[in-house]
Structures are given as C-alpha cells and as structure tokens.
Design brief:
The protein has 461 residues and is an all-beta fold. It is built from no helices and 34 strands. The protein has 2 domains: 194 residues, no CATH class; 149 residues, TolB, C-terminal domain (Neuraminidase, 6 Propeller), CATH 2.120.10.30.
C-alpha cells in the first residue's frame, strides 16, 4: 500500500478550509489490508474481483461480499471472512447460480448467531440468498423462481432473514418483493408491492419485533413514479403503505434507516433535469413526521446514516460549475427536526497538477456519533485517469456546524490505467475500533482488478 501526500479542499458556502490529507504520521492507521483475486493472473486474461458490501463479523473479524468475473464472463459470487486485526483471509468461498450461471452478491447482513447472509441476482434473473456459518460452512442457499431480482437483505429476531427485490408475475409489469426466511432457510412468507405498473423494493430494515420497513418505487412510467415505504409485520401482514409523489418526478430509493420511533427514508428526487435529496421521517404508525427536500446540496445521493440523536447524514455528489472540480463530494446534515443544519463539498486540490473530482459512495457512524465517509477521487489527465480510494472522518457532534471539521483523511492505492478508478463502496465500524472500507482496486493490469478492504485505526482526536 502506497501513501501519498495531498490536500483536500473543503468548500461550504463561501468558506474554504485546507488541510493535509495523508500526513506521514497516519501510516500506522493501516491495521490490515485484504486484497483478493482467486485464480493466478495471466496477461491477456480477465480476472476481475470487486467487493460491494462489508459487515462486522464475530471475534473482531469482518465479512465481505461481491463477485469474481473470470475468463468465461460468468461471475461467481464471493463471500469471505477476514481477520480484522491482520487482514489475513480466514476463508473465501465462491458460488455459481443455478445451472452454473453467474451470480453477484450485492449486500450482506450478520444474524444473531454470527452467520453471514448475502443477497444478489443470478443469471436468468433469479433472486439468490446464501448463508454461511462463521467457520465457512454453507448453511443453506435459496434461489427464487425467475424472473426475480435481489436488492437488499436484513437480519431479524431469532436469526430470521428478510430480503427485498422485484418479481414479474403474469399479467403485471413487475412487483416489489419482500421475503422472509427462518433461521434454517425455510420460506415463511412473501409479500408484494403491486400496482398495474412497474414496482420494486430496493432497501429494507427490520426492528426488534420483526417488523420490516421496505422502501421502493411504485407506479413507474418513463417520466414519473412514486416513492413507497411499506411496513410489514413479523407475520407477513402489510401494516401500511405510504407514498410520496409529484407530477413529472422520478424517485430513486437510497436508504431506509430504522429509529426507535419509526423509520427515515432517503431518496433521489429528479424533476426538470435537476436532482435533489429527499429525506422523510415516519412514525411506527405511518404518520409522516417531517419531509425535507435538500435543494442546494446533494444532487446525486449515494448513502445515508442516522445518529443516535436523530441527526441524518446524507452523502453523494454534486455538479458544481463554480468549483475547481466540477464534480464534488457532498455531505449534508439534516437535524432531528428535519431541517438542514450543515453541509460541505469536497474536492482534492493538487496545485499545479489540477484537481481530483470526488464522489462519495458510503457513510457510517460509530457509537460515539463520529461519522465516516468513503468514496473515490479521480484525477483525469490525457487518455488515462488516476483513481484513488479515500476515507474521511468527522468528529461529533455534527448538528449545528456549518462546516464539519475533518479529523483525518486517508487515501488508499491509486491506479493509472484506463478509466477504472479505485473505489471504496461500503463501510462498517470495526468492533475493536476503527472502520473497514471495502471496494475495488482496479486496473492493476489489463483485465485485472482485486477486491480491496482496508481496516483503518483511529488516530487521536
């Protein structure tokens, strides 16, 4: 792992603050690196691995999921468990879909027994789920009939498993799908979000009683749809459905965040060629407590997290002609009352070498309310682009600060081949302190990329 020096420019309103991104003293932040690609690489072949999600595992380990795409161009789903202290692989297993077809695992969850469950979609459009024990034993795998797709997974009480996606049923344009499995893999029930047009469920969270909150879209046409939040009880009964709609507006679900009093939904809201963040809070009974349309900050929402005090942190990117880098990473802070209370835009200033555009992809927070944001920075030059995986950390508390103070910024490995940047795509807090950041180390050579996870220790505040 190479360490570079640089500067991160932070712009909020008319305020600009410069700080060193990767001081030499921060080299000890790297507690472990896990970069993996299963078979030996041979020039002229394709061995492309990427990780899409990471979750904390038992005994200081972590699980990571994604896919490996080999010479046959039929991806194998990957699930691995890694020692969180050293970065050493404990086990890594690949899976093919039904009939030997490809599969990509998108999201993961850890259940109460420390097992990991991954969801994805196999070739020929089949929602897939796989569950492994902490020792790497396959507990079960399930493939729903075609055509179905898998989007997200969550663990419920008694190690139950909830997954969302979509299904095409006869005579319908496509329905949102929520399924629940018992700990032993028995299908308990299916629930559908269904209209006469196209519907889909994209993300899900589950409360301590086993109630599922699933966010998706319904009544979709080419020019408009409705944002839909569905609450389904542990027994599979639809408690209520709430929608947000506007003429000529498209909604893209991003996150549904569980709180002690209900759920918060986050989505992109696109209309008239412009896109903004939409955040809304609902009570357990389905009453909308507040709604916020963040017009001035995030134009492409990627992820969101909620803090213990109800503050919502939304991350993504924005096209900003006034900034030296046209695309900037954006953090927007929505207070517990539903009002914007802080925001900042980020790009990397390289001086005479120009700038790096920044795009944020993931956000998480630890038990102290400290916030971590991950993404990629891209330096375009000639016919190649240098992509760099980055992680930032903010202190707590965030609410009330116009410009969040960045305590440290870490930049991982770079590549200078083609236009495939290195990216951090997912984050989770390490149980023993620090964070795990997962993604892809791209274009190491033609046709070669590796799944990448870094564990970062916290430098002193």
């Amino acid at each position: 792992m190479s360490h570079r020096r640089g500067a991160v420019a932070l712009v909020a309103a008319v305020i600009a603050v410069m700080l060193t991104a990767v001081p030499t003293a921060y080299a000890e932040m790297i507690a472990g690196t896990f970069a993996w690609n299963p078979p030996p690489y041979a020039p002229g072949t394709h061995h492309e691995t990427s990780f899409s999600d990471v979750v904390a595992g038992p005994a200081g380990s972590f699980y990571v999921v994604g896919a490996y795409n080999g010479m046959a161009y039929a991806a194998s789903g990957i699930v691995a468990r890694v020692n969180g202290t050293t970065g050493a692989k404990m086990w890594a297993l690949t899976t093919k879909g039904p009939g030997g077809g490809g599969v990509f695992w998108y999201e993961a969850a850890k259940d109460g027994g420390g097992n990991v469950v991954a969801v994805g979609t196999a070739s020929l459009n089949r929602l897939g789920l796989v569950k492994y024990s902490p020792s790497g034993v396959l507990k079960w795998s399930r493939w729903l009939g075609a055509p179905t797709v898998g989007r997200d997974v969550a663990a419920g009480p008694s190690s139950t498993v909830y997954a969302v996606g979509g299904a095409s049923r006869s005579g319908r344009g496509g329905d949102g799908l929520l399924v629940k499995y018992a700990a032993d893999g028995r299908l308990l029930w299916k629930s559908y979000l269904s209209t006469t047009r196209t519907d889909m469920l994209d993300v899900v969270t589950v409360d301590a009683r086993g109630n599922a909150y699933a966010l998706g879209e319904r009544n979709a046409t080419r020019t408009s749809n409705q944002l839909a939040l569905v609450k389904v009880t542990a027994a599979g009964h639809v408690a209520w459905t709430r929608t947000i709609a506007a003429t000529g507006t498209m909604f893209s679900p991003v996150a549904v965040l569980r709180t002690s009093t209900g759920a918060i939904v986050v989505a992109n809201r696109s209309s008239g060629g412009e896109s903004h963040a939409l955040i809304a809070k609902y009570s357990t009974s389905g009453t909308r407590v507040w709604k916020c349309i963040d017009n001035e900050r995030v134009s492409e929402v990627a992820d969101a997290a909620v803090l213990g005090d109800g503050t919502v942190v939304v991350v993504g990117s924005r096209f900003d002609e006034s900034a030296p880098a046209e695309w900037v990473g954006v953090v927007s802070i929505i207070g517990a009352a539903g009002l914007p209370v802080g925001h900042a835009s980020y790009y990397e200033d390289l001086g005479a070498e120009g700038v790096r555009t920044v795009e944020f992809a993931a956000v998480t927070a630890d038990s102290q309310g400290r916030v971590y944001v991950a993404g990629t920075a891209i330096h375009e030059s000639g016919d190649t682009g240098e992509g760099t995986a980055i992680v930032l950390r903010f202190p707590e508390p965030l609410e009330g600060q116009l410009l969040p103070d960045v305590r440290w910024a870490y930049r991982g490995a770079s590549n200078v081949y083609g236009w495939s940047p290195n990216e951090f795509r997912a984050l989770c807090v390490a149980g023993s302190g620090g964070v795990y950041a997962a993604g892809v180390q791209s274009a190491l050579a033609e046709g070669l990329s590796k799944g990448l996870v870094e564990r970062l220790r916290m430098p002193p505040d």
